[in-house]
Amino acid sequence: MNVRNALQKAKKAEHKKAAIGSDIDLGNFTKENKEEHETVESIEDIPQKVKGTLLQVGVDSTENERAGSFLQMDQSNIYSSSNSKSIELMNLESALNKHSWLSDYMWNTVSPDADKYTAQTALRETQEGTKSGYFIRSLPGTKEVFPMQACMFIGDEAVMQTSHNIIIAEENSELHVITGCATGEDVSSALHVGVSEFFLKPGSKVTFTMVHNWAEQVEVRPRTGIRISDNGTLINNYILTSPVKTIQSYPTAYCEGENSKAIFQSIQSGQKDSVIDVGSRVYLSGKGSKSEVISRAVSHDESKIYSRGHLAGTVQGVKGHLECHGLVLSDDSMIYAVPELEASAANLEMSHEAAVGKIAEEEIYYLTSRGLTEDEATSMIVRGFLSMDITGLPPELANETKKMIDMSLEGI
Q: Which of 116, 156, 218, 376 could form a disulfide with 214 if both were Cys (CB 3.0 to 4.6 A apart)?
């Protein structure tokens, strides 16, 4: 989409509410940084307390066993570096200057007029020239074992952080990305809007693992679209176990290619009075395309979790499965499962499984009879419930992902 069209669409949607999720008054947040953050030569140059926060969301400042790193602090792209000859990594502005063709990918899978959050992102990057976000591209026929890591960090109070990220996996390439989003210790309230667009070319594979660790009064509105070509595979993992004021995310994958595949796996632990509205949608329009959407949710305190899933099959022979399991651990909390199956062709296979309940008393009794306290027994059961197996990853990355999940579940 060209800049003029994106700007026109965004202007018309400046005040457009999102279709789902609680509404946010954008006037409560500032688009100005208290100060522009300077670039750094290495992630090791950032403050020690920030390094600790990043590590909690899987971003290692030593860059050990990482193919490259990107760090955005508030609205500033302060660091990007690739250690791999097979992957391009840079901030979006640099990528647009290097690749004139990249503008054809902008606002291709996510529309600037989807709601006021996408509109605000588009307006900032066109009117204000604030092109924040990253560009990652795996070159044709390459397979990088180590993951790229990217982090969106909010360090200023009441800031509105926007980013526009583009990921392109070229033909027959394999790419792994770990992205962590977090706030500084001194931040209590802020808004994060992340627009991410994925393009998987024929025979490519992308695994994308996102860990969120926000402050209690942070509002979060990711907007994600994915296009998958012939024999392409996406594995998307999402982990949220920290308190947040509200989050609403509904990434949409378009399995357009023959034998394309999309797998979404999410872990959500609602804490305090968090309102979590997270789901995944997949359109199966390619011959032989497949999808799985698997969710594990636990509600504590006064939290509310809306767990959504939508599979739409439009041609014969496609397969899709939705699975949502939830545990309600407080009488003041709730889980609302919304599985949707849509079939507009014959001879396809679509299924869903949803179960929400509480921990069985016999499970607690079994563990307490062996010396654990009731709280210890509950914590063990919850951690086991949330520790799902992440399928389809190389052994090294599977171990790294499990470690990230274990770190996220500490204290639950």
A: 218
